[in-house]
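Project standup — Tuesday

K.O.: blocked on the structure for the chain from last sprint. Re-posting the sequence here as requested.
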Amino acid sequence: MNSKTENEDFIRQNRQQVKLYRINTSQYELRGIGDLSKKIIYIINTHRQATEDIVDVDLNLNPIVLGNINYFLYTFSLKEKNSIWNYFLPETLTEDIELITRKPSLVVFAFDEKNIFCLVGGSGMQVIKRYLDSDFGLDLYSMIAKVEEDLVLSAKYRGMTGNLAGSTEVYRNEHKLIDTMSFGRIYKEILFEISEAQHKEYFDFISEDKNTALSGFAGSAFQIRSAITFEQTHLLIEKVIEIINTKKPKGLGSFSEIKDNGKIENIYRRSLYEAVRNDMKVRYSDGGYKEGDKEFDFDFGHPTQLLDFYECDIYFVTTKILPEPIVETTNREDVYKKTLQFISETQNLPLLVDFMRFVGGLIVTGIKENKKPIKSPFLDCISCELSDEFNKPIFCIDKKWYKVDENFIEGINNDCSLLMQNARIRKDILPEIWENPKNTDEGDYNLQYLGKPNYLVLDKMLGQNIELCDILFIDESEIYLIHIKKGFDGKIRDLTNQIIISSQRLWNDLKSEKKFIREVYGRYRTSTNHVSSPITEPEFINLFNKKIHFVLAFTSTLQNNKSIFENLRKVKSNIAKFSFIQCVRDMKSESYPLSACEIMSK
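H.V.: unblocked you, prediction finished:
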């Protein structure tokens, strides 16, 4: 075998399935560092300072240049301190000997004039994780995807209605990308297959057989799932740069994330601060909202750990400039209002910039026994719908910002109207009129059913810090777990999250030791509600042998109490509509059927 053949065999054998990452050069630590090579040095030095057990550091900052791309290599090794051999071998053999292994790791930084890309090996991800463009792979794929042709092998996503546990779907049959797309589905990862035509157009250098489809991965990274050489990797990076420079992310669904950090910081977040400040002023300085006023439509919850946040026993709000918490409450629904009340009554903040500075330093902490505290900046807990500079709707959901495609509003109205009519339940489930809803709350309405036959008022009767329902209605063969909210606005998002959490907890509980419903009964048994509607624990548990329905109940927020069912298009809150759509679909596929009931009011 001649040397040329041997070299070709060596190159052919030395291939890797490469995942390509991109650094978010606008990340707050890197924002003030202009030169890309200096940003790379900062990332490396930060890692070296933070990691004490790095040995044999090889910091090569003399790049090699291929075409228009510069390559830096950063390598390091970590001591494996708890080697399994220390436990396997007798001490007489290992005495005075330090058995360690060294785990080689690397990051290859590849950059041009605008972008920093990375390849990682070993523990290299820990170097760049905090600086990653978390949607790079998905954005890149959206630029080349053909939604009516590309096949999806699996998809991981979350919904816009709440950051509950994400879902993963695996498709055994041919499933086109367009068939997996729905309102509010935000993809986190996609395993896809692109067509022969796309293979030839974008990645003809990947495989010798260009008349085949190619599979790939898109998430925080982008990957063509074929083993390739370094030369092919370089060509891949060149192609990625070409795509980025000539195309724009299209968004895979109705929502697309806004990535313009300048607009987010200088326009959108400022608008959010202003909306919160105005809400505080009306509530605590101007005597509250008057009839016909448009209230600030929002939802409040932890942006990334919503379920854990719901289950907390106590909540604190703290600020850097005051030694004690400014709010302490066991009711998460009070956190927002009590915080604004404190600011209004104790702080002199005449200008918006003063308000922004104070609120920007607020931290919300939730604590549950025997668990690590959950923390978030106060503003990041607010989800709402605002308008952009062109008066088009934008959504702040779980501290990220989204815009919608042109057909979103029409589509969401059609979908919500159809699902709401199909989910509509008979009126005699909740026959009581909600008197004066402007000056009464859900708790006041719930008490109207206290002592009535076939009703149990379980409002605030928590099990494992989860509310099973507000009112339980008992029929001959069915029970209805009714969750109630005043109005049909952004707070419906909170209600639908409660329903999903409650239904999932109940579904699992009934297949095990029934600790959840026993705990709910325990709270009910010691409450004054039990005096009006007594029931034994065995009788209570036996109720769940009946067919179970969950019910989302609400009052009208429209002028003159016009029906939501009949006038859905007049409802302004797109978050409420979408939350309802998503909840109906999630409940149908995962647990119990969901019905909707409109409570009459006057």
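K.O.: great, moving the ticket to review. Residues 261-284 form the longest helix (24 residues). The longest strand covers residues 54-66.
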